[in-house]
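ugh finaly. both done.
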Amino acid sequence: MKKKIIGTIIAIFVCELAGGIGAIFTTPNIAVWYAGLVKGPLNPPAFVFGPVWTLLFALMGVSAFLVWEKGAKKPSVRTALWIFFLQLLMNIYWSILFFGAHDPAAAFAEILIMWFAILWTMIAFRKISRPSFWLLAPYILWVSFAVFLNYSIMVLN
C-alpha cells in the first residue's frame, strides 16, 4: 500500500512539474499580453485556468500510475507511458508557443496534434487499465474546449 501511495505521489508530481514548466511561460504573459487579446464570449476568466489545470495534471498522474503499476517491464505498458510522456511534452510546448512565443496560430496547430496524442494515450491506456482511460476523459474534454478557445483567439486577433 505504501508503494502505491508513493508511486501515485511521484506520478502526480511529474505531471504537476510539467504544468509548472508551462506556467513559467504562461504566468508572466497573463497580465499584459493575454489580457490584451480579444477573446470570445465563452472564454473563462484567467483565474479559472490554474485550478482546472492543477486538477487535470493530478488526474493525469493517477492515470499514468495505474498504467505503470500494471508492469513497467511489459512492452505495452512502456509504449503507453512513452505516448503519455509525448503528449505531456506537447502540453508544455503549447504553453511555450501560445504564451511564450505569443503565437496563437502555431499553438493552434500544435494543440490539434496534441489532442490526437491525448486520444492515442487514452486508447493505449484503455488496453491496460480502464480507470486510467476514464481519468483522462476530463483532460481531453478540457483540451477540446481549449482548441476552441485557441481558435477563437487566433481568429479574433
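ok and the 2nd:
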Amino acid sequence: MKGPLKDVEHLIRLAGLFAAGLLFFGVARAQFVPDDFGKFGHYRANAVTEAAAKPIVYAGRARCTECHEDTVNEAAPSKHKAIACETCHGALLKHADDPAVETTKVDAQPLCLRCHAANTGKPSHQPTVVAKDHSDEDSCVPCHNAHDPRMDQEK
C-alpha cells in the first residue's frame, strides 16, 4: 500500500497494545483493589472499623498526669511540653491501669536524635545537633533533662 495509510498496520498494533494495557490494568484493579475502596473518599471504608476494633494501648497524657504531675510540671516551661509522654516512653496503658507493671527505660541518645539530629529536612527553629561533634555520641541525659532539655543558662 502506498500513500498516507502505508503504515496503518503499525498503528493497529500500537492501538492493540494500548487496549491490552488498559484491559490488564482493569483486571488487575478489579482483582487487587477492595470493593469498599473509594466509598467515602480515597481510602477503604472498612479501614475505620478495622482500626476501631484494635485494642487500645495508649493511656494519654491525662492518665500520666494522675501519678506524674511533677514530671508534667517540669516539662511545662520547655518546648517538650507539647510532646505526648508516650511519644518517648511508648504505649503505657498497661502501666497506667496497674502501676506495678514496669516501664522500659528509654535509651535517650537515639531517642533524642530522632528529632534533633542535624539534617537538611529540619525546620530552622528546630534545635539540631551533630551527635559526634556535640557530645561524641554520648547519652544526652548527663547534660540535659529529657523533660526540660534547656541548658541551665537558658532556663
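summary for the 2nd one i guess: The CA atoms of residues 65 and 72 lie 6 Å apart.
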